[in-house]
């Protein structure tokens, strides 16, 4: 009797750990091919979780103290990855120069990502002219929010008002 109670308790504990592990990974379990490709491409990465992205399976992880993501197709094909940069200092000189010479040079950088696909590397900047403040400034100018995309050579590929 005592042994069966202990066995039952152990089974419940193990299943509880499995449920918690799935909850920690967003409840999405990536296919084996995807996880194998991820592990091979990013050795030493600390996986936060897997999510479903419209393009495929998205891994959120940390590597070299930087927040990163990688997206894979269901067959394990790597599609893209992104690294959250800590500032313009992490961008190539050509991109920094292009931004510095643009009319957005004085804007605040809310987020900068280095996005790599099979076609190359892009720099996606979310910028604004209001320092992230949420205080109402009605009648004192206007808020402008933009997403700017540069290629690695500093060529402006996209400018979108948010």
Q: TL;DR?
A:
The chain has 162 residues and is α+β, with helices and mostly antiparallel strands.
What does this structure look like?
This protein has one domain: Nuclear Transport Factor 2, Chain: A. The relative contact order is 0.10. It contains 3 helices and 8 strands. The protein has 162 residues and is an alpha+beta fold.
β-strand amount: 35-45%
Work out the helicity level.
25-40%
Q: Tell me what the CATH architecture is.
A: Roll
Based on secondary structure, the structural category is alpha+beta
Structural shape: elongated
Order of helices and strands: HHEEEEHEEEE
CATH fold node name: Nuclear Transport Factor 2, Chain: A
**Contiguous runs where pLDDT drops below 50 for at least 5 residues:** 4-25
Class in CATH?
A: Alpha Beta
Helix count equals 3
Strand order of the largest sheet: 1-2-3-4-5-6-7-8
Q: Taking all residues together, what is the mean pLDDT?
A: 85
Q: How far is the N terminus from the C terminus?
A: 65 Å
| Alpha-carbon Rg, integer | 22 Å
The total strand number stands at 8
Let me know the largest β-sheet.
8 strands, antiparallel
Keywords: Signal
Protein name: Beta-lactamase-inhibitor-like PepSY-like domain-containing protein
Signal peptide: 1-23
Helix/strand layout:
Blueprint (H helix, E strand, L loop, with lengths): L1 H23 L7 H10 L4 E8 L2 E8 L2 E7 L5 E8 L7 H8 L7 E10 L2 E9 L16 E7 L4 E6 L1
Antiparallel strand pairs: 1-2, 2-3, 3-4, 4-5, 5-6, 6-7, 7-8
